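Hi R.,

Here's the chain you asked about this morning:
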Amino acid sequence: MRTARKRPARHSRARGYLRISEVARIVGISPTILRAWENLGLVSPTHLLKSQGLLAANAPSPTTNSIGRRLRRLRLQKSYSLSQVASAVDVSIGFLSAIERDQMTASVATLRRLARFYQIKILSLFNPSDANPGRVTPAERKILDAGPGVRMELLSWGNTMMEPHLFRIAPSAGSGESYAHEGEEFLYILRGKLEISIADGERLCLQEGDSFYFESSNEHHWRNPGKKDALVLWVNTPPTF
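And here is the predicted structure, written out as tokens:
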């Protein structure tokens, strides 16, 4: 294999998932060759990126509410192969396998596709209890990593009409591809900036102190265009996210 020139992986990190073509371009080999090697079990995109120094050997680290085991259990319960699920949600087999092993995290858009495929809500991946706890201290929040640089903290759960989150979004990180779902959403920017694009052509850069409401059925995607972490109070209703 020829020596590849290292290139920044910010475009992949911002979307929160890696396609075969992206990994091949980053490490400088043919997508056809990389796909053949992966299918033969000779290499994985994750290992290639680590070997090129483009992905930290211990990143991302699993969180208390890691979803890998839950997604693997769902797949096995339904007797699906990795290739069947990967094809259905438009990710590589290696990336899906890495998610199930908690070696990588999926973007919000990818989580949406996985949840739709398994006919569940992303909310269930937080593993919340059925009962509404009322008061929730910071230490009691349910936490879910949703792709590199995106952390979702569930602020309340149970039999509620709203689904409130605290989103922590690193610079250049975001939702990945556009997604849509039933309901309405309300955002309040506590810190930093958030750029959000709606399917009807509306594109806003929300600043600290700004709030924004929109209907979730509109395709939307978002990212942090700033140079520091964004902190966003994000409320979905009903809790179908």
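One quick note: Confidence is low (pLDDT under 50) at residues 1-17, 56-64.

Cheers,
M.
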